[in-house]
């Protein structure tokens, strides 16, 4: 049984449907999908009553004009869309972090809200691989302690420091194991001390020995990564170690005793580091990131509830007890600092001390390492 054309549900040909839509755009009209279906159904109904050849002959001039305009619209859209998509994409800043510290800070404070770029976070277990990745071009900017940066700069690497942040000196501590009788620096004589070569750990132990009037070789050194140093002290394989948070809190909970802190002994500086190549390509992005980092640090210190929020975010990411995180952040109270003459002088002293202890073979002028032009970004944040 045949069905009349007027009652036949149209099979919507996507080509014809697209043509109708493009034609409507060409004429400055909007035609919804249901309306286009109705138009198509009406066209099919009329087609059943009229001779196809005469209809085509009659309508062809109109359709040809519409086709030309629709084609022009389609080509214009095709040309614009790829460009528009790229223009809408934000630039990316690749940031090297250690154990979610900075990432947690930014997430807790919301300091990256409305940033004109996207941050791609890369996590590392320690500072040395961070600055090595910066130097290799794998990161745009990295956050790490001063030692690894100074060591790499001493080798002629084109790294640059564009900002400084500093832990409280009370959060960098020389600890004695609970299995020992060590109470003072003098008690370290002849003992085995775990340190991280070139980092705050080595700086603190050697500064403490010098301050106590002891030669640097009065102790036996066991060179270990910070996580391994903590494990060695807990296992009783070494007598003491110099470390920082969160290891300090963990070791104290396990019975370790404080021998001395970094207060008055070392600078305990950390750097926001990059390369000249990245500065040339992304100066404004780097400056904005440093400015937001400063604001985030100020936010964290403005209220104890902010510290708790920061600690909770970090604890969730690191899957550790929030109490440990709260203790760490409450003690370390990390703050941002501009690149001042005194901060640069402290870096020079660290380099010279490394030379005296034989850790570095020769000194170098650190002033070329610091790009103080980025101070304008942090001054604007105040």
UniProtKB/TrEMBL annotation:
Q: Which GO terms describe its molecular function?
A: ATPase-coupled transmembrane transporter activity
Q: Which NCBIfam families has this protein been placed in?
A: SsuA_fam (TIGR01728)
Q: Does the keyword DNA-binding apply?
A: no
Q: Which residues cross the membrane?
A: 20-45
* GO cellular component, as recorded: membrane; periplasmic space
Where is the protein situated, by its record's location annotation?
A: Periplasm
> Transmembrane among the record's keywords?
yes
Please name the PANTHER family in this protein's record: ABC TRANSPORTER SUBSTRATE-BINDING PROTEIN, ALIPHATIC SULFONATES-BINDING PROTEIN-RELATED
Source organism per entry reads Pandoraea apista
Which residue ranges does the record assign to the SsuA/THI5-like domain? 127-303
Keywords (alphabetical) are: Membrane, Signal, Transmembrane, Transmembrane helix, Transport
Q: Name one Pfam family in it.
A: NMT1
Which SUPFAM superfamilies does its entry note?
Periplasmic binding protein-like II (SSF53850)
Q: Which InterPro entries match?
A: ABC_SsuA_sub-bd, SsuA/THI5
This chain belongs to which protein, by name?
A: ABC transporter substrate-binding protein
């Amino acid at each position: 049984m045949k069905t009349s054309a007027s009652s036949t549900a149209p099979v919507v040909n996507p080509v014809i449907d697209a043509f109708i839509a493009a034609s409507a755009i060409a004429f400055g009209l909007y035609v919804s999908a249901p309306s286009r279906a109705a138009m198509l159904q009406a066209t099919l109904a009329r087609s059943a009553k009229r001779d196809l050849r005469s209809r085509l002959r009659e309508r062809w001039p109109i359709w040809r004009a519409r086709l030309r305009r629709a084609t022009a619209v389609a080509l214009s859209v095709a040309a614009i869309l790829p460009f528009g998509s790229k223009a809408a994409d934000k630039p990316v800043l690749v940031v090297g972090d250690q154990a979610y510290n900075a990432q947690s800070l930014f997430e807790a404070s919301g300091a990256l809200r409305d940033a004109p770029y996207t941050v791609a976070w890369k996590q590392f277990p320690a500072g040395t691989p961070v600055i090595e990745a910066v130097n290799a071009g794998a990161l745009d900017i990295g956050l790490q302690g001063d030692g690894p940066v100074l060591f790499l700069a001493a080798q002629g690497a084109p790294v640059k420091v564009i900002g400084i942040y500093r832990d409280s000196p009370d959060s960098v501590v020389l600890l004695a194991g609970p299995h020992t009788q060590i109470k003072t620096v003098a008690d370290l004589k002849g003992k085995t001390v775990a340190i991280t070569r070139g980092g705050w750990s080595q700086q603190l132990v050697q500064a403490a020995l010098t301050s106590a009037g002891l030669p640097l070789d009065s102790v036996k050194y066991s060179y270990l990564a910070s996580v391994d140093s903590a494990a060695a002290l807990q296992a009783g394989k070494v007598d003491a170690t110099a470390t920082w948070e969160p290891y300090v809190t963990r070791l104290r909970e396990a019975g370790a005793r404080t021998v001395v802190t970094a207060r008055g002994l070392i600078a305990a500086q950390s750097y926001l580091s990059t390369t000249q190549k990245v500065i040339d390509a992304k100066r404004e992005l780097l400056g904005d990131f440093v400015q937001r980092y400063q604001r985030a640090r100020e936010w964290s210190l403005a209220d104890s509830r902010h510290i708790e929020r920061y600690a909770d975010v970090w604890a969730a990411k690191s899957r550790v007890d929030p109490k440990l995180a709260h203790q760490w952040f409450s003690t370390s109270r990390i703050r941002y600092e501009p690149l001042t003459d005194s901060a640069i002088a402290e870096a020079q002293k660290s380099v010279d001390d490394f030379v005296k202890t034989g850790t570095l073979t020769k000194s170098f002028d650190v002033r070329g390492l610091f790009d103080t032009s980025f101070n304008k970004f942090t001054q604007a944040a105040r």
